[in-house]
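Final report, Chapter 2: Outcomes

The project's central promise was a pipeline that accepts a single protein chain and returns its three-dimensional structure in a standardized token representation, suitable for archiving and comparison. That pipeline is now operational. To close this chapter, we reproduce one record exactly as it appears in the project archive, with the input sequence first and the structure output second.
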Amino acid sequence: MPIYKGSKDNEKEELKFELKYQHSLSLTERFRMMLRQSKLVLQMLIDNGHRKPTEIIKRA
């Protein structure tokens, strides 16, 4: 994965770089990356004490 080495204040160049990188990936690679990042975020939430929301219990 390439690393952006530009001015920290230049958001347009950073976005341009990110889009160019994403365009270079195949659809399968993009989905794998998305799933990997989703799992990472979920693990970070769990590690920091955030669990899935409470489930709705049907009253009898």
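Archive annotation: Helices lie at 11-24, 27-47.
This record, like all others produced under the grant, will remain available to the consortium after the project formally closes.
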